[in-house]
Structures are given as C-alpha cells and as structure tokens.
Design brief:
Blueprint: E1 13-19, H1 30-47, E2 50-56, E3 60-66, H2 73-91, H3 112-128, H4 144-149, E4 153-157, H5 174-187, E5 191-195, H6 201-223
Antiparallel strand pairs: 1-3, 2-3, 4-5
Length: 224
C-alpha cells in the first residue's frame, strides 16, 4: 500500500525528528561535522525552508523548521538522510548499508509555549544523553552557537559523497582529521550558505493567535 504523502502548510512550524537504525553512526568529530554541515547547506540550497534550530545527535536529529515550500519539505529531509548515509558508509568502507529508519516525525507546533519547550528540548538533548554538562560543550553540530552569537549564516564546503574515501582509522588524531578534510576540500570547490532563522517561527505563531482570537470573537457574536 503506497505511503500517504505528508501535507505541510506553508508558513507552518514543524518539529522534525528522525532516528538511525543503529547506535552511533555520527560520532562528532571534525570530519563528520564538516561533511554534515555541507550536506545540510546543500539541502537548503536545493530545497529551501527556514531552519530555526537543530541538533544532530549520534543516532538522531531534531530540527525546528519553518515551511517555505510545502512540496519540498520531504525532499529536504530525504536529501539530508540519503547523503549523510552515503557519506557514513563511504567513510567506513561499506556499501548500501541502511543507516536511517524510514520516514520522519514532523508534528506542527501551534503555540509559543510549545515552541519554546521544543527549542529547550532540542538543545537539552546532549545533556539528557549525559554526553556533556551543557550544549555549549557539545562537540557535534547544532545551531546553538549561531543562535547565541547571532550568526545567522555561514559559508560551508559541500563535500560530495562520491569523493569520500574510507577513513584510514576510526580514531584519527586532530592533525590526521585536518589533513583528511583538506584532501576532501581539494576535491570539492563548491561552497553553500548554511542559514539559520531562530526567530522565524514567531510570525507563524502570532498569525495563528490572531486567527484563533478572531474565531473566538465571531463564535461569541454568533452565540449571542
């Protein structure tokens, strides 16, 4: 039976979550972080959407997303998952190994309190997993620093998965990671802008509140 296509209203705010099939395919280090940032930036370049907040954990990610193009939300998430799986498999010298569980969760957030709670939940993930004492110490990729320091865009190198060669070891020193990334960057010359819009969700929530207020007003008038 065919999967029912998800509907994403334009301007809506989504809390997107997707998990891997097995633990720890995305151990945070310079190599993985560089590749993932490039993949997310490339996905945003191809499929739009405003990324408000996100954290990429070792076995799942959370993303708060403002929908700009309803037809391309699934394409954005699908691209990130497909290319990151391809990259990880190439780093580990594997072929066609399943990395992600199928699909993704994407409930619409309908009020400001719920949105703030989801933002807190997202950034509390590394602490909840007992990886660090604070999101400030998390070595993986997230939008936390962009959020705190107000840096809403960054130019990052897109590393095509087809150019990735197996890691010589899964425990590279920092110097070895820098050298490996330098070789990857020499094979890839395209940069993309990775953009964050931490407060973009506010306009949608305000719009909803106005709609609800008007509905309550008309309902009251009709009942009288």
């Amino acid at each position: 039976m065919p999967r029912i296509r998800k509907f994403f209203p334009k301007g809506s705010v989504l809390f997107v979550t997707s998990s891997t099939e097995h633990s720890l395919p995305f151990m945070p280090n310079l190599v993985v972080n560089t590749i993932l940032q490039g993949i997310i930036a490339r996905a945003q370049h191809l499929y739009g959407q405003k990324i408000c907040h996100f954290v990429f954990m070792a076995n799942h990610f959370h993303m708060i997303l403002l929908v700009e193009d309803p037809d391309n939300v699934s394409n954005l998430i699908g691209y990130i998952k497909a290319k990151s799986a391809n990259a990880i498999n190439r780093l580990l010298g594997r072929k066609r190994h399943t990395v992600w569980c199928s699909g993704f969760d994407s409930p619409i957030i309908l009020d400001s309190e719920a949105t703030v709670n989801k933002i807190i939940y997202t950034y509390a993930n590394p602490t909840k997993a007992r990886l660090v004492d604070s999101i400030k110490e998390f070595p993986g990729i997230s939008s936390w620093k962009a959020y705190i320091y107000g840096k809403t865009s960054n130019s990052v190198r897109w590393i095509r998965p087809s150019t990735i060669t197996p890691l010589p070891s899964t425990s590279l020193t920092m110097t070895e990671q820098i050298e490996y990334i330098a070789k990857l960057k020499s094979r890839n010359k395209i940069n993309h802008k990775l953009s964050f819009n931490p407060d973009a969700w506010i306009s949608f929530i305000i719009f909803l509140q106005h709609i609800i207020s008007w509905l309550m007003f008309f309902d009251k008038v009709i009942l009288q």
